[in-house]
Amino acid sequence: MIIEVDGLSKSFTYHKKELGLKSSIQNLFRREMQTKHAVSDISFSIEEGEVVGFLGPNGAGKTTTLKMLSGILHPTSGSAKVFGYTPWERKNEFKRQFSIVMGQKNQLWWDLPANESLFLNKCIYEVDDVEYARTLGELTELLDVKELLKVQVRRLSLGERMKMELIAALIHKPRILLLDEPTIGLDIISQRKIREFFKYYNRDKKTTIVLTSHYMNDIEEMCDRSIIINHGRIVFDGGLNEVNERLGHKKIMKLVLSEPVEEWVLNQVGEVKEFKDTHVKFVFEQSEIKKMSRWVLDHLPVIDFTIEDIPIEEGIALLYQSGGEKHETA
Amino acid sequence: MLKTLKKYALIYKVFVKNCFIAQMEYRINFLFANTIEIAYLFIKLLYVMVAFRVGVVINGYTPDMMMMFVGSFTMMTGFYCLFFYSNFMNLSNHVRNGTLDLLITKPVSLQFIATLRNVDFGFSFTNVVAGAGMIIIAWSRMDIPVTPSRVLVFMLFIFLGIVLKYAIFLMPSLISFWTVQTAAVNQMSTAIWDMNHVPMHIYGSSVRHVGTFLFPVFVITNFPPLFVLDRLTWAHMVWFLIAPLLFLFLSRKLWNVAIRNYSSASS
Q: What SUPFAM superfamilies does the record point to (chain A) (predicted)?
Protein backbone atom coordinates (compact mmCIF):
# COMPACT_ATOMS: atom_id res chain seq x y z
CA MET A 1 0.00 0.00 0.00
CA ILE A 2 1.37 3.38 -0.96
CA ILE A 3 -1.17 5.43 1.02
CA GLU A 4 -2.71 4.28 4.27
CA VAL A 5 -5.15 6.44 6.18
CA ASP A 6 -6.57 5.43 9.51
CA GLY A 7 -9.21 7.32 11.47
CA LEU A 8 -8.16 10.72 10.11
CA SER A 9 -10.09 13.74 11.42
CA LYS A 10 -9.68 17.46 11.05
CA SER A 11 -11.68 20.19 12.71
CA PHE A 12 -11.30 23.94 12.43
CA THR A 13 -12.32 26.52 14.97
CA TYR A 14 -13.63 29.84 13.80
CA HIS A 15 -15.73 32.65 15.19
CA LYS A 16 -19.29 33.29 14.21
CA LYS A 17 -20.11 36.60 12.57
CA GLU A 18 -23.74 37.69 12.48
CA LEU A 19 -24.92 40.09 9.82
CA GLY A 20 -24.35 43.80 10.29
CA LEU A 21 -22.30 46.46 11.98
CA LYS A 22 -23.53 45.91 15.52
CA SER A 23 -22.26 42.37 15.64
CA SER A 24 -18.90 43.51 14.24
CA ILE A 25 -18.53 45.82 17.22
CA GLN A 26 -19.61 43.07 19.61
CA ASN A 27 -17.08 40.83 17.94
CA LEU A 28 -14.30 43.20 18.96
CA PHE A 29 -14.87 42.28 22.59
CA ARG A 30 -16.38 38.82 22.57
CA ARG A 31 -16.28 36.16 19.92
CA GLU A 32 -18.39 33.07 19.86
CA MET A 33 -16.10 30.26 18.83
CA GLN A 34 -17.41 27.36 16.82
CA THR A 35 -15.89 24.14 15.63
CA LYS A 36 -16.35 22.72 12.16
CA HIS A 37 -15.58 19.06 11.59
CA ALA A 38 -14.23 19.13 8.05
CA VAL A 39 -13.16 15.49 8.04
CA SER A 40 -14.39 12.92 10.55
CA ASP A 41 -12.70 9.60 11.13
CA ILE A 42 -11.98 8.50 7.58
CA SER A 43 -9.95 5.41 6.69
CA PHE A 44 -8.87 4.02 3.33
CA SER A 45 -5.79 2.71 1.56
CA ILE A 46 -4.53 3.15 -1.97
CA GLU A 47 -2.19 0.90 -3.94
CA GLU A 48 0.62 2.02 -6.20
CA GLY A 49 -0.59 2.84 -9.71
CA GLU A 50 -4.25 3.30 -8.75
CA VAL A 51 -6.31 6.26 -9.91
CA VAL A 52 -8.71 7.19 -7.14
CA GLY A 53 -11.27 9.95 -7.26
CA PHE A 54 -12.73 11.82 -4.34
CA LEU A 55 -16.24 12.89 -5.15
CA GLY A 56 -18.45 15.05 -3.01
CA PRO A 57 -20.33 18.33 -2.80
CA ASN A 58 -18.63 21.60 -1.87
CA GLY A 59 -17.37 21.59 1.68
CA ALA A 60 -17.52 17.79 1.98
CA GLY A 61 -13.90 17.52 3.10
CA LYS A 62 -12.24 16.38 -0.14
CA THR A 63 -9.66 19.13 -0.31
CA THR A 64 -8.97 18.97 3.42
CA THR A 65 -8.20 15.26 3.03
CA LEU A 66 -5.85 16.00 0.15
CA LYS A 67 -4.15 18.75 2.12
CA MET A 68 -3.51 16.35 4.98
CA LEU A 69 -2.12 13.72 2.59
CA SER A 70 0.31 16.31 1.23
CA GLY A 71 1.36 17.54 4.66
CA ILE A 72 -0.10 21.03 4.25
CA LEU A 73 -2.41 20.52 7.22
CA HIS A 74 -1.96 18.73 10.52
CA PRO A 75 -4.90 16.48 11.37
CA THR A 76 -6.77 16.83 14.65
CA SER A 77 -6.52 13.07 15.17
CA GLY A 78 -5.80 9.84 13.31
CA SER A 79 -2.86 8.73 11.25
CA ALA A 80 -1.76 8.60 7.64
CA LYS A 81 1.25 7.06 5.93
CA VAL A 82 2.37 7.92 2.43
CA PHE A 83 5.34 5.79 1.28
CA GLY A 84 5.75 5.06 4.98
CA TYR A 85 6.19 8.75 5.82
CA THR A 86 3.83 10.77 7.97
CA PRO A 87 2.99 13.63 5.57
CA TRP A 88 2.73 16.46 8.11
CA GLU A 89 6.24 15.77 9.37
CA ARG A 90 7.16 17.34 6.03
CA LYS A 91 10.38 15.42 5.41
CA ASN A 92 12.21 16.48 2.26
CA GLU A 93 12.59 12.84 1.11
CA PHE A 94 8.81 12.57 1.23
CA LYS A 95 8.20 15.86 -0.56
CA ARG A 96 10.48 14.84 -3.43
CA GLN A 97 8.21 11.93 -4.30
CA PHE A 98 4.87 13.59 -4.77
CA SER A 99 3.27 16.63 -6.30
CA ILE A 100 0.06 18.48 -5.73
CA VAL A 101 -1.81 20.54 -8.30
CA MET A 102 -4.61 22.80 -7.19
CA GLY A 103 -6.95 24.09 -9.84
CA GLN A 104 -7.42 27.34 -7.93
CA LYS A 105 -3.83 28.04 -6.92
CA ASN A 106 -0.81 28.46 -9.09
CA GLN A 107 2.85 27.97 -8.51
CA LEU A 108 4.05 29.57 -11.73
CA TRP A 109 5.40 33.11 -11.53
CA TRP A 110 2.75 35.33 -13.00
CA ASP A 111 4.99 37.78 -14.85
CA LEU A 112 7.51 35.29 -16.14
CA PRO A 113 7.46 32.85 -19.03
CA ALA A 114 6.64 29.37 -17.73
CA ASN A 115 10.10 28.00 -18.54
CA GLU A 116 11.66 30.24 -15.86
CA SER A 117 9.38 28.76 -13.19
CA LEU A 118 10.05 25.27 -14.51
CA PHE A 119 13.77 25.87 -14.22
CA LEU A 120 13.29 26.98 -10.62
CA ASN A 121 11.51 23.69 -9.90
CA LYS A 122 14.38 21.84 -11.55
CA CYS A 123 16.76 23.47 -9.04
CA ILE A 124 14.44 22.87 -6.08
CA TYR A 125 13.96 19.18 -6.91
CA GLU A 126 17.60 18.75 -8.02
CA VAL A 127 16.71 17.23 -11.39
CA ASP A 128 19.84 16.77 -13.51
CA ASP A 129 20.15 18.63 -16.81
CA VAL A 130 19.72 15.69 -19.19
CA GLU A 131 16.73 14.31 -17.31
CA TYR A 132 15.17 17.79 -17.15
CA ALA A 133 15.52 18.34 -20.89
CA ARG A 134 14.06 14.91 -21.64
CA THR A 135 11.07 15.26 -19.27
CA LEU A 136 10.34 18.79 -20.41
CA GLY A 137 10.47 17.74 -24.06
CA GLU A 138 8.18 14.79 -23.45
CA LEU A 139 5.60 16.73 -21.41
CA THR A 140 5.44 19.76 -23.70
CA GLU A 141 4.97 17.41 -26.65
CA LEU A 142 2.21 15.46 -24.92
CA LEU A 143 0.36 18.58 -23.84
CA ASP A 144 1.13 20.43 -27.06
CA VAL A 145 2.51 23.58 -25.46
CA LYS A 146 6.08 23.65 -26.79
CA GLU A 147 5.58 27.05 -28.41
CA LEU A 148 4.15 28.59 -25.25
CA LEU A 149 7.10 28.02 -22.93
CA LYS A 150 8.48 31.48 -23.62
CA VAL A 151 5.20 33.34 -23.19
CA GLN A 152 4.53 35.14 -19.90
CA VAL A 153 2.14 33.12 -17.77
CA ARG A 154 -0.28 36.03 -17.39
CA ARG A 155 -0.81 36.03 -21.17
CA LEU A 156 -1.78 32.34 -21.33
CA SER A 157 -5.37 31.10 -21.40
CA LEU A 158 -6.66 29.22 -18.37
CA GLY A 159 -6.33 25.89 -20.18
CA GLU A 160 -2.78 26.62 -21.31
CA ARG A 161 -1.83 27.76 -17.83
CA MET A 162 -3.20 24.57 -16.33
CA LYS A 163 -1.06 22.55 -18.70
CA MET A 164 2.00 24.52 -17.61
CA GLU A 165 1.07 23.95 -13.97
CA LEU A 166 0.97 20.23 -14.71
CA ILE A 167 4.41 20.31 -16.28
CA ALA A 168 5.72 22.18 -13.24
CA ALA A 169 4.24 19.51 -11.01
CA LEU A 170 5.59 16.59 -13.04
CA ILE A 171 9.10 17.81 -13.83
CA HIS A 172 10.58 15.74 -10.98
CA LYS A 173 8.59 12.61 -11.91
CA PRO A 174 6.58 12.22 -8.72
CA ARG A 175 5.32 8.76 -7.71
CA ILE A 176 2.07 10.23 -6.43
CA LEU A 177 0.14 13.02 -8.05
CA LEU A 178 -2.53 14.73 -5.96
CA LEU A 179 -4.98 16.79 -7.99
CA ASP A 180 -7.46 19.17 -6.44
CA GLU A 181 -10.14 20.14 -8.95
CA PRO A 182 -7.69 20.06 -11.85
CA THR A 183 -10.28 20.85 -14.51
CA ILE A 184 -12.17 23.59 -12.70
CA GLY A 185 -13.21 26.43 -14.98
CA LEU A 186 -11.91 24.74 -18.13
CA ASP A 187 -13.99 24.38 -21.29
CA ILE A 188 -15.15 20.91 -22.31
CA ILE A 189 -12.41 20.33 -24.86
CA SER A 190 -9.64 21.37 -22.47
CA GLN A 191 -11.18 19.20 -19.77
CA ARG A 192 -11.16 16.22 -22.08
CA LYS A 193 -7.55 16.81 -23.15
CA ILE A 194 -6.36 17.06 -19.57
CA ARG A 195 -8.24 13.90 -18.62
CA GLU A 196 -6.73 12.02 -21.53
CA PHE A 197 -3.31 13.22 -20.51
CA PHE A 198 -3.76 11.91 -16.96
CA LYS A 199 -4.99 8.57 -18.20
CA TYR A 200 -2.00 8.22 -20.51
CA TYR A 201 0.43 9.39 -17.85
CA ASN A 202 -0.90 6.92 -15.31
CA ARG A 203 -0.66 4.02 -17.79
CA ASP A 204 2.78 5.00 -18.98
CA LYS A 205 4.51 5.90 -15.71
CA LYS A 206 2.44 3.91 -13.19
CA THR A 207 2.04 7.12 -11.19
CA THR A 208 -0.58 6.91 -8.48
CA ILE A 209 -3.19 9.62 -8.97
CA VAL A 210 -5.60 10.85 -6.34
CA LEU A 211 -7.96 13.54 -7.49
CA THR A 212 -10.90 15.49 -6.19
CA SER A 213 -13.57 16.86 -8.42
CA HIS A 214 -17.20 17.66 -8.50
CA TYR A 215 -17.36 17.04 -12.21
CA MET A 216 -18.77 13.54 -12.61
CA ASN A 217 -17.06 13.12 -15.96
CA ASP A 218 -13.61 13.57 -14.46
CA ILE A 219 -14.16 10.71 -12.08
CA GLU A 220 -16.15 8.51 -14.42
CA GLU A 221 -13.53 8.61 -17.16
CA MET A 222 -10.36 8.50 -15.14
CA CYS A 223 -10.96 6.54 -11.99
CA ASP A 224 -11.51 2.86 -11.46
CA ARG A 225 -12.30 3.60 -7.88
CA SER A 226 -14.18 6.45 -6.25
CA ILE A 227 -14.41 7.51 -2.68
CA ILE A 228 -17.56 9.51 -2.14
CA ILE A 229 -17.32 11.82 0.79
CA ASN A 230 -20.01 13.91 2.41
CA HIS A 231 -20.10 15.89 5.65
CA GLY A 232 -16.53 14.76 6.25
CA ARG A 233 -17.36 11.06 6.13
CA ILE A 234 -16.85 8.37 3.54
CA VAL A 235 -20.25 7.21 2.27
CA PHE A 236 -19.03 5.02 -0.55
CA ASP A 237 -15.76 3.43 -1.65
CA GLY A 238 -15.65 1.40 -4.84
CA GLY A 239 -16.31 1.49 -8.60
CA LEU A 240 -18.85 4.04 -9.75
CA ASN A 241 -20.88 1.32 -11.46
CA GLU A 242 -21.39 -0.24 -8.05
CA VAL A 243 -23.13 2.83 -6.63
CA ASN A 244 -26.53 1.42 -7.56
CA GLU A 245 -25.82 -1.88 -5.87
CA ARG A 246 -24.90 -0.01 -2.77
CA LEU A 247 -28.20 1.79 -2.96
CA GLY A 248 -29.97 -1.57 -2.78
CA HIS A 249 -30.68 -2.21 -6.46
CA LYS A 250 -33.19 0.56 -6.88
CA LYS A 251 -34.92 1.28 -10.16
CA ILE A 252 -36.61 4.28 -11.67
CA MET A 253 -39.99 4.08 -13.40
CA LYS A 254 -41.02 6.95 -15.66
CA LEU A 255 -44.66 7.29 -16.64
CA VAL A 256 -46.54 9.44 -19.09
CA LEU A 257 -50.25 9.64 -18.26
CA SER A 258 -53.12 10.59 -20.54
CA GLU A 259 -54.57 12.88 -17.83
CA PRO A 260 -53.30 14.28 -14.52
CA VAL A 261 -54.08 12.34 -11.34
CA GLU A 262 -54.18 13.41 -7.70
CA GLU A 263 -50.87 13.14 -5.88
CA TRP A 264 -52.34 11.00 -3.07
CA VAL A 265 -53.15 8.33 -5.62
CA LEU A 266 -49.54 8.23 -6.73
CA ASN A 267 -48.31 8.13 -3.15
CA GLN A 268 -50.13 4.83 -2.73
CA VAL A 269 -47.83 3.29 -5.33
CA GLY A 270 -44.46 4.17 -3.88
CA GLU A 271 -41.81 6.87 -3.54
CA VAL A 272 -42.60 9.68 -6.00
CA LYS A 273 -39.38 11.41 -7.07
CA GLU A 274 -40.87 13.86 -9.56
CA PHE A 275 -44.41 14.77 -10.49
CA LYS A 276 -45.42 17.32 -13.09
CA ASP A 277 -48.80 17.27 -14.86
CA THR A 278 -48.84 13.97 -16.67
CA HIS A 279 -45.19 13.05 -16.11
CA VAL A 280 -44.34 10.95 -13.03
CA LYS A 281 -41.10 9.41 -11.78
CA PHE A 282 -41.03 6.66 -9.11
CA VAL A 283 -38.08 5.06 -7.31
CA PHE A 284 -38.61 1.50 -6.11
CA GLU A 285 -36.84 -1.73 -5.21
CA GLN A 286 -35.83 -4.00 -8.08
CA SER A 287 -37.64 -6.92 -6.43
CA GLU A 288 -40.94 -5.09 -6.78
CA ILE A 289 -40.83 -4.65 -10.56
CA LYS A 290 -43.66 -7.04 -11.32
CA LYS A 291 -45.98 -5.90 -8.57
CA MET A 292 -45.40 -2.22 -9.32
CA SER A 293 -45.83 -2.55 -13.08
CA ARG A 294 -49.04 -4.47 -12.71
CA TRP A 295 -50.55 -1.97 -10.27
CA VAL A 296 -49.53 1.04 -12.31
CA LEU A 297 -50.89 -0.37 -15.56
CA ASP A 298 -54.14 -1.43 -13.90
CA HIS A 299 -54.90 1.72 -11.92
CA LEU A 300 -53.38 4.67 -13.79
CA PRO A 301 -54.16 6.07 -17.29
CA VAL A 302 -50.70 5.16 -18.63
CA ILE A 303 -49.83 5.94 -22.25
CA ASP A 304 -46.08 5.30 -21.96
CA PHE A 305 -43.74 3.86 -19.35
CA THR A 306 -40.05 2.95 -18.98
CA ILE A 307 -38.02 1.24 -16.25
CA GLU A 308 -34.37 2.29 -15.90
CA ASP A 309 -31.38 2.03 -13.63
CA ILE A 310 -30.76 5.08 -11.49
CA PRO A 311 -28.26 7.29 -13.39
CA ILE A 312 -24.95 7.49 -11.54
CA GLU A 313 -25.37 11.21 -10.88
CA GLU A 314 -28.68 10.61 -9.17
CA GLY A 315 -27.29 7.68 -7.24
CA ILE A 316 -24.56 9.88 -5.96
CA ALA A 317 -27.01 12.64 -5.12
CA LEU A 318 -28.94 10.07 -3.08
CA LEU A 319 -25.71 9.16 -1.30
CA TYR A 320 -25.02 12.83 -0.61
CA GLN A 321 -28.43 13.22 0.93
CA SER A 322 -27.98 10.19 3.11
CA GLY A 323 -24.38 11.11 3.99
CA GLY A 324 -25.32 12.81 7.22
CA GLU A 325 -26.70 9.67 8.80
CA LYS A 326 -25.14 6.85 6.82
CA HIS A 327 -21.51 6.14 7.67
CA GLU A 328 -20.77 2.95 5.90
CA THR A 329 -17.39 2.29 4.34
CA ALA A 330 -16.43 -0.48 2.02
CA MET B 1 26.25 20.52 4.38
CA LEU B 2 28.26 22.10 1.57
CA LYS B 3 26.00 20.46 -0.99
CA THR B 4 22.92 21.89 0.73
CA LEU B 5 24.48 25.35 0.85
CA LYS B 6 25.28 25.11 -2.84
CA LYS B 7 21.70 24.09 -3.60
CA TYR B 8 20.26 27.01 -1.64
CA ALA B 9 22.71 29.43 -3.25
CA LEU B 10 21.63 28.20 -6.67
CA ILE B 11 17.94 28.53 -5.81
CA TYR B 12 18.52 32.01 -4.43
CA LYS B 13 20.32 32.96 -7.64
CA VAL B 14 17.25 31.86 -9.61
CA PHE B 15 15.00 33.89 -7.26
CA VAL B 16 17.11 37.00 -7.89
CA LYS B 17 17.09 36.42 -11.64
CA ASN B 18 13.33 35.76 -11.75
CA CYS B 19 12.55 38.84 -9.66
CA PHE B 20 14.69 41.01 -11.86
CA ILE B 21 13.03 39.73 -15.05
CA ALA B 22 9.56 40.12 -13.48
CA GLN B 23 10.23 43.70 -12.38
CA MET B 24 11.70 44.68 -15.72
CA GLU B 25 8.36 43.67 -17.24
CA TYR B 26 6.97 46.88 -15.75
CA ARG B 27 9.61 49.43 -16.66
CA ILE B 28 7.58 52.51 -15.85
CA ASN B 29 6.69 51.22 -12.39
CA PHE B 30 10.35 50.44 -11.80
CA LEU B 31 11.41 53.96 -12.78
CA PHE B 32 8.71 55.55 -10.65
CA ALA B 33 9.71 53.47 -7.64
CA ASN B 34 13.26 54.72 -7.97
CA THR B 35 12.13 58.31 -8.43
CA ILE B 36 10.05 58.15 -5.26
CA GLU B 37 12.99 56.74 -3.36
CA ILE B 38 15.21 59.57 -4.57
CA ALA B 39 12.63 62.05 -3.27
CA TYR B 40 12.58 60.33 0.13
CA LEU B 41 16.33 60.35 0.14
CA PHE B 42 16.38 64.13 -0.22
CA ILE B 43 14.13 64.46 2.80
CA LYS B 44 16.54 62.34 4.82
CA LEU B 45 19.48 64.36 3.57
CA LEU B 46 17.80 67.48 4.92
CA TYR B 47 18.59 66.26 8.46
CA VAL B 48 22.27 66.17 7.57
CA MET B 49 22.08 69.47 5.71
CA VAL B 50 20.57 71.17 8.73
CA ALA B 51 23.31 69.79 10.95
CA PHE B 52 25.96 70.97 8.47
CA ARG B 53 24.44 74.43 8.13
CA VAL B 54 24.23 74.98 11.84
CA GLY B 55 27.47 73.18 12.44
CA VAL B 56 26.30 72.02 15.85
CA VAL B 57 27.82 69.15 17.73
CA ILE B 58 25.11 66.98 19.31
CA ASN B 59 26.24 64.85 22.25
CA GLY B 60 29.76 64.79 20.84
CA TYR B 61 28.70 64.05 17.24
CA THR B 62 29.93 66.40 14.52
CA PRO B 63 27.95 66.83 11.28
CA ASP B 64 30.41 64.50 9.48
CA MET B 65 29.77 61.81 12.04
CA MET B 66 26.03 62.38 11.70
CA MET B 67 26.37 61.89 7.97
CA MET B 68 27.99 58.52 8.53
CA PHE B 69 25.07 57.44 10.74
CA VAL B 70 22.49 58.62 8.23
CA GLY B 71 24.47 56.84 5.50
CA SER B 72 24.53 53.61 7.47
CA PHE B 73 20.78 53.90 8.16
CA THR B 74 20.00 54.66 4.52
CA MET B 75 22.07 51.78 3.23
CA MET B 76 20.58 49.32 5.72
CA THR B 77 17.05 50.47 4.82
CA GLY B 78 17.98 49.81 1.21
CA PHE B 79 19.19 46.30 1.98
CA TYR B 80 16.03 45.62 4.00
CA CYS B 81 13.80 46.67 1.12
CA LEU B 82 15.96 44.76 -1.34
CA PHE B 83 15.96 41.40 0.41
CA PHE B 84 13.19 41.19 3.00
CA TYR B 85 10.48 43.87 3.07
CA SER B 86 8.13 42.58 0.35
CA ASN B 87 8.48 39.02 1.65
CA PHE B 88 7.56 39.97 5.22
CA MET B 89 4.60 42.06 4.06
CA ASN B 90 3.45 39.11 1.93
CA LEU B 91 3.36 36.71 4.86
CA SER B 92 -0.05 37.92 5.98
CA ASN B 93 -1.34 37.53 2.40
CA HIS B 94 0.00 33.99 2.38
CA VAL B 95 -1.95 33.27 5.55
CA ARG B 96 -5.11 34.99 4.36
CA ASN B 97 -5.21 33.44 0.90
CA GLY B 98 -3.65 30.09 1.71
CA THR B 99 -0.88 30.58 -0.84
CA LEU B 100 1.62 28.95 1.46
CA ASP B 101 0.06 25.59 0.53
CA LEU B 102 2.16 24.93 -2.51
CA LEU B 103 5.32 26.29 -0.93
CA ILE B 104 4.93 23.87 1.98
CA THR B 105 5.12 20.91 -0.40
CA LYS B 106 8.51 21.91 -1.83
CA PRO B 107 11.55 19.98 -0.61
CA VAL B 108 13.38 23.06 0.65
CA SER B 109 13.10 25.03 3.87
CA LEU B 110 9.73 26.76 3.96
CA GLN B 111 11.18 29.68 5.89
CA PHE B 112 13.78 30.14 3.16
CA ILE B 113 11.29 30.04 0.32
CA ALA B 114 8.60 32.13 2.06
CA THR B 115 10.82 34.87 3.49
CA LEU B 116 13.50 35.24 0.81
CA ARG B 117 11.68 34.54 -2.43
CA ASN B 118 11.19 38.15 -3.52
CA VAL B 119 14.04 40.51 -4.17
CA ASP B 120 12.75 44.03 -4.73
CA PHE B 121 15.04 46.15 -6.86
CA GLY B 122 12.69 49.08 -7.36
CA PHE B 123 12.62 50.60 -3.88
CA SER B 124 16.11 49.70 -2.77
CA PHE B 125 18.75 50.50 -5.34
CA THR B 126 18.85 54.26 -4.67
CA ASN B 127 19.10 53.82 -0.92
CA VAL B 128 21.95 51.34 -1.07
CA VAL B 129 24.02 53.46 -3.44
CA ALA B 130 23.30 56.79 -1.69
CA GLY B 131 23.93 55.26 1.75
CA ALA B 132 27.27 53.86 0.64
CA GLY B 133 28.11 57.25 -0.88
CA MET B 134 27.40 59.09 2.37
CA ILE B 135 29.52 56.65 4.34
CA ILE B 136 32.44 57.05 1.95
CA ILE B 137 32.21 60.88 1.94
CA ALA B 138 31.97 61.08 5.74
CA TRP B 139 34.78 58.57 6.14
CA SER B 140 37.14 60.58 3.93
CA ARG B 141 36.14 63.99 5.41
CA MET B 142 36.99 62.77 8.88
CA ASP B 143 40.40 61.51 7.71
CA ILE B 144 39.87 58.11 9.24
CA PRO B 145 42.62 55.78 7.97
CA VAL B 146 41.36 53.30 5.40
CA THR B 147 43.07 50.10 6.53
CA PRO B 148 42.05 46.73 5.11
CA SER B 149 41.18 45.41 8.57
CA ARG B 150 38.92 48.38 9.36
CA VAL B 151 37.12 48.11 6.03
CA LEU B 152 36.72 44.34 6.35
CA VAL B 153 35.35 44.50 9.88
CA PHE B 154 33.02 47.31 8.82
CA MET B 155 31.72 45.15 5.97
CA LEU B 156 31.37 42.19 8.32
CA PHE B 157 29.32 44.40 10.65
CA ILE B 158 27.11 45.50 7.78
CA PHE B 159 26.55 41.83 6.92
CA LEU B 160 25.77 40.95 10.54
CA GLY B 161 23.44 43.94 10.59
CA ILE B 162 21.53 42.54 7.61
CA VAL B 163 21.21 39.15 9.34
CA LEU B 164 20.04 40.79 12.56
CA LYS B 165 17.59 42.98 10.66
CA TYR B 166 16.08 39.84 9.09
CA ALA B 167 15.71 38.09 12.43
CA ILE B 168 14.25 41.01 14.36
CA PHE B 169 11.81 42.23 11.74
CA LEU B 170 10.59 38.78 10.76
CA MET B 171 9.17 38.22 14.23
CA PRO B 172 6.45 40.93 14.19
CA SER B 173 5.31 39.71 10.75
CA LEU B 174 4.89 36.18 12.09
CA ILE B 175 2.05 37.41 14.26
CA SER B 176 -0.06 37.16 11.10
CA PHE B 177 -0.24 33.38 11.61
CA TRP B 178 -2.49 34.14 14.57
CA THR B 179 -4.12 37.43 13.66
CA VAL B 180 -4.05 37.18 9.83
CA GLN B 181 -3.73 40.95 9.34
CA THR B 182 -0.57 42.61 10.63
CA ALA B 183 -0.55 46.04 9.02
CA ALA B 184 -0.76 47.77 12.42
CA VAL B 185 2.13 45.79 13.91
CA ASN B 186 4.21 46.40 10.82
CA GLN B 187 3.57 50.14 11.09
CA MET B 188 4.89 50.02 14.61
CA SER B 189 8.07 48.18 13.72
CA THR B 190 8.68 50.65 10.88
CA ALA B 191 8.28 53.53 13.33
CA ILE B 192 10.80 51.94 15.69
CA TRP B 193 13.16 51.42 12.79
CA ASP B 194 12.92 55.11 11.89
CA MET B 195 14.25 56.06 15.33
CA ASN B 196 17.50 54.78 13.95
CA HIS B 197 18.46 57.52 11.55
CA VAL B 198 20.34 59.41 14.25
CA PRO B 199 23.11 58.16 16.56
CA MET B 200 21.64 56.26 19.49
CA HIS B 201 23.46 58.51 21.98
CA ILE B 202 20.91 61.20 21.24
CA TYR B 203 18.35 59.14 23.17
CA GLY B 204 18.23 58.62 26.91
CA SER B 205 19.99 55.64 28.43
CA SER B 206 16.85 53.55 28.99
CA VAL B 207 15.78 53.86 25.34
CA ARG B 208 19.36 53.12 24.34
CA HIS B 209 19.47 49.93 26.39
CA VAL B 210 16.14 48.65 25.14
CA GLY B 211 17.21 49.42 21.57
CA THR B 212 20.54 47.67 22.08
CA PHE B 213 19.58 44.54 23.95
CA LEU B 214 15.84 43.90 23.96
CA PHE B 215 14.83 44.94 20.46
CA PRO B 216 18.31 45.63 19.13
CA VAL B 217 17.56 47.97 16.24
CA PHE B 218 20.41 50.28 17.24
CA VAL B 219 22.87 47.44 16.83
CA ILE B 220 21.98 47.19 13.14
CA THR B 221 22.83 50.69 11.97
CA ASN B 222 24.64 52.32 14.90
CA PHE B 223 27.32 49.77 15.57
CA PRO B 224 29.10 49.78 12.18
CA PRO B 225 29.74 53.58 12.24
CA LEU B 226 30.55 53.48 15.95
CA PHE B 227 33.19 50.91 15.14
CA VAL B 228 34.71 53.12 12.43
CA LEU B 229 34.75 56.04 14.87
CA ASP B 230 36.48 53.86 17.50
CA ARG B 231 33.61 54.37 19.89
CA LEU B 232 32.43 50.78 20.15
CA THR B 233 33.27 49.06 23.43
CA TRP B 234 34.51 45.46 23.50
CA ALA B 235 31.34 44.38 25.24
CA HIS B 236 29.28 45.86 22.42
CA MET B 237 31.46 44.17 19.84
CA VAL B 238 30.92 40.78 21.46
CA TRP B 239 27.18 41.51 21.61
CA PHE B 240 27.25 42.34 17.91
CA LEU B 241 28.65 38.89 17.19
CA ILE B 242 26.17 37.10 19.46
CA ALA B 243 22.98 39.08 18.75
CA PRO B 244 22.44 37.99 15.10
CA LEU B 245 22.84 34.31 16.02
CA LEU B 246 20.65 34.62 19.09
CA PHE B 247 17.85 36.47 17.30
CA LEU B 248 18.10 34.20 14.26
CA PHE B 249 17.62 31.27 16.62
CA LEU B 250 14.65 32.95 18.30
CA SER B 251 12.98 33.87 15.01
CA ARG B 252 13.48 30.29 13.79
CA LYS B 253 11.77 28.95 16.91
CA LEU B 254 8.91 31.41 16.53
CA TRP B 255 8.62 30.48 12.85
CA ASN B 256 8.21 26.82 13.77
CA VAL B 257 5.48 27.61 16.28
CA ALA B 258 3.77 29.98 13.83
CA ILE B 259 3.77 27.50 10.97
CA ARG B 260 2.00 24.89 13.06
CA ASN B 261 -0.76 27.43 13.35
CA TYR B 262 -1.21 27.68 9.59
CA SER B 263 -4.65 26.49 8.66
CA SER B 264 -4.60 27.07 4.90
CA ALA B 265 -7.66 28.76 3.37
CA SER B 266 -10.65 27.88 1.27
CA SER B 267 -9.96 26.75 -2.25
A: P-loop containing nucleoside triphosphate hydrolases (SSF52540)
